[in-house]
Amino acid sequence: MEKKQVLKRLYVGGLGHTVSEAELQERFSKFGNVTDTEIVIRKDDQGNPMKTFAYINIGISEADLKRCMSILNKTRWKGGTLQIELAKESFLHR
């Protein structure tokens, strides 16, 4: 049975502040075809990073998505504990 890949947008929270787009792409490309990564770093009033998260666009089958979530979610990586979920629909695209 052929796995049908669908483009999904994942939210990846709990990232360490030093993670690069290339590292994210490498980490998630084991599960599907990563087409885009976007890292967001929220800073406090002094400019210190408080929260780092990313959005990843990935062509992935449902089976591989479940595998990705079960393997990577809640794991420690690069100084953070990953929180992976399907991204909520952006208010810009409604």
Automatic annotation (TrEMBL):
Keywords attached to this entry: Nucleus, Phosphoprotein, RNA-binding
Name of the featured protein: Nucleolar protein 8
MF terms in GO: RNA binding
Pfam family, one: RRM_1
Signal peptide: none
Species assigned in the record: Terrapene triunguis (Three-toed box turtle)
GO process annotations (BP): protein localization to nucleolus
InterPro entries xrefs: NOP8_RRM (IPR034138), Nucleotide-bd_a/b_plait_sf (IPR012677), RBD_domain_sf (IPR035979), RRM_dom (IPR000504)
Chief location bin: nucleus
Entry function: Plays an essential role in the survival of diffuse-type gastric cancer cells. Acts as a nucleolar anchoring protein for DDX47. May be involved in regulation of gene expression at the post-transcriptional level or in ribosome biogenesis in cancer cells.
Subcellular location: Nucleus, Nucleolus
SUBUNIT field: Interacts with the GTP form of RRAGA, RRAGC and RRAGD. Interacts with NIP7. Interacts with DDX18; the interaction is RNA-dependent. Interacts with DDX47; the interaction is RNA-dependent.
Any one annotated GO CC term: nucleolus
SUPFAM superfamilies per the UniProt record, alphabetical: RNA-binding domain, RBD
Residues in RRM domain copies: 8-89
